[in-house]
Amino acid sequence: EGTVFPKPKQKQKIKVRIEDMAFGGKGIARINTTKGGYVVFVPNTLPGQVVVGRVSKAKSGYCELKLLEVVKRSPEETDIPYQRIPGAPYASMPQELQEFYKLNLTVSQFEHMGNFRNAKSLLETFIPSPSQWHYRNKVEYSFSRDVYDFDAKENTVGFGLGYKRRGTFWLVENIDGDTGLFDSQLESKMSQLRQHLMASGLPAYYNKNNTGFFRNMVCRKSFVDDQLLINLVTTSEGASEFDVKGFKDQLIEIIGENRLAGCLWTVNDDIGDTVANPRNGSTTVIAGKDTIRERICGLDFMVSVNSFFQTNPKSAENL
After folding, report:
1. What digits encode the pLDDT tens for the residues 225-276?
2. How much is the pTM?
3. Measured between alpha carbons, how far is residue 249 from residues 16, 33, 65, 118, 245 in Å?
């Protein structure tokens, strides 16, 4: 504070304190430069945080950063009883503050994009999600030989299974516990599943040169039946060595036979990660069925692993 800096340049790494949230949900910071006041936008940040980011866009009056690290938490953040994940940057913000910021951001979008000067008075009500945690009915976990060690804050080579680190397409943060996002029973034993698959000797995928065996694991959940539909996606490289029955048995050990609605195996040799209808591959049902049932407003829907379906069915029902 009070220090004057040269205007940030492309790819430069800088540290800033987030002061507010902008239209579109980006955090706002302000710095003094030799050219005067300068605005810095940082996606996925909260007011009060001190963050380090790399300049991804530099203009005369502002720049945007790609978030690299949160150096200091916001005073408004709270501890949560779940593993932190890269795709939920606002999870540590109390629910009432999340609603406050989301409401203001929604109003600002109508004011800026729709030119509604009285947008707030036209808004009838804010409808929160009925469930703050474990509300999603679909997630996609990624495998990678490149793993980010959150505690050591460094990249390592190994066998990763989890969510991709924010801003990367090749780096994975392992799931070692319940994230509060999807299914508690599955995620609490994710490290057990990872160890089982790693013991097969087949490698996790390496996105930078498109080699390896294990690629993704797509999971669907039925709230009405409390069952899971799981699709393991691999390449054909080493497929003949893969113990399909061992994988299925491991899932049953983790979540129980009654909860496993179906288990699929998709072989995808395409460069892209698209699971649905790969050009160079196929899908096989190795246990159960290829759909789960979900109920919304008294109507039953049979949902496949790749169906477009609302990821928060309880909120969809409210709406």
Report:
1. 999 999 999 999 999 999 999 999 999 999 999 999 999 999 999 887 766 6
2. 0.86
3. 49, 61, 45, 58, 6
pLDDT of residue 294: 97
Residue 16 pLDDT: 95
**pLDDT, the chain, mean:** 90
Give the per-residue pLDDT at 275: 61
Kind of pairing between the strands at 20-21 and 27-33: antiparallel
Alpha helix locations (H) across the chain? 95-113, 119-122, 184-188, 190-198, 244-255, 313-318
242 conformational bin, left if phi > 0, alpha if psi -120 to 50, beta if neither: beta
Question: pLDDT at position 24, please?
Answer: 67
What three-state secondary structure class fits 273?
Answer: coil
Say what the alpha-carbon torsion angle 105, 164, 184, 213 is, to the nearest 10 degrees: 150
Q: Residue 313 and residue 301: Cα distance in Å, rounded?
A: 11
* Chain-centroid distance, C-alpha 131: 18
Cα separation, 96 vs 105, whole angstroms: 14
At residue 112, φ and ψ (nearest 5 deg) are -85, -45
How far apart CA 46 and CA 93 sit, in angstroms, is: 8
Report residues of the chain scoring pLDDT below 70: 1-5, 24, 274-280
Sign of CA dihedral 79, 80, 83, 86: negative
Cα–Cα distance, 58 to 39 (Å, whole number) = 10
Whole-angstrom Cα distance, residue 158 to residue 311?
Answer: 31
What distance in Å separates the CA atoms of residue 216 and residue 37, rounded to the nearest whole number? Answer: 45
Two tokens, residue 75: 């005073």
pLDDT computed for residue 276 by the predictor: 61
In this structure, are strands 171-174 and 138-149 parallel, antiparallel, or unpaired? parallel
Closest CA to 136 of 260, 217, 216, 221: 221
